[in-house]
Amino acid sequence: MTKHILVATDGSDKAHDAVTMAADLAKAANARLTVLHVILHGLRAEEANRLADAEHLVRRVSAYTMPQLGRVPASMNEFFQASQGDIPQAVSVLGDQIARDAAENARTLGVGTVDTRVEPGDYAETILSVADEVGADLIVVGSRGLGRLRGLLVGSVSQKVVQYAPCSVVVVR
Predict the structure, then answer these.
(1) Which end of the chain is less congested by CB atoms within 10 angstroms, N or C?
(2) Please, which residues have CB within 8 angstroms of residue 106's CB and are 6 or more apart in sequence?
(3) Over the stretch 15-45, which tens digit does the pLDDT of each residue have?
(4) Is pTM beyond 0.85 here?
(5) pLDDT, tens only, 73-112
(6) Mean pLDDT of 54-68
(7) What does each C-alpha distance from 170 to 22, 55, 154, 166 come to in angstroms?
């Protein structure tokens, strides 16, 4: 029987679908749910652009992290520019908000016990490490849809999690 589900989220639409599926499974099994957001070490430009999927968070997070601004940034790029070089802090706050929003969504869907984690590291390795640490017996991740060629060349987070996880994994498409 499933007692603890780990769901990874990056704030994207696919991750939202993964959180919804994990919440439905957790509610049906009366299982604990842990929502995880992983912050990649050494945030790269493409990572910042990927976070643009969650630009709806910019308004809320910038009001919290940069109350001195007279105008709320309109995009993720403006958000990082306004952070005055403290991109790690801005990304950390954004990660916290992504995890909180996902947890709130799960609670709204009826999950009784929801925890959040925001951890730095490699995506797949961190998901696997946290799953082991919390004793998850099911991991739910979204599919990023890299495309056939890129997926073959670099692999994907979901492929790595499926390959190395010590428990069952659900990949949401």
Answers:
(1) N
(2) 7, 19, 22, 23, 26, 33, 35, 114
(3) 899 999 999 999 999 999 999 999 865 554 4
(4) no
(5) 556 566 666 666 666 776 777 888 889 999 999 999 999 9
(6) 52
(7) 9, 26, 21, 13
With cut-offs at 50, 70 and 90, classify the pLDDT of residue 154. Answer: very low
**Assigned token pair, 121:** 């590291």
- CB 138 within 8 Å of CB 2: yes
CB atoms within 10 A of CB 160: 17
Give a three-class secondary structure readout of the chain. CCCEEEEECCCCHHHHHHHHHHHHHHHHHCCEEEEEEEECCCCCHHHHHHHHHHCHHHHHHHHHHCCCCCCCCCCHHHHHHHCCCCHHHHHHHHHHHHHHHHHHHHHHCCCCCEEEEEEECCHHHHHHHHHHHHCCCEEEEECCCCCHHHHHHHCCHHHHHHHHCCCEEEEEC
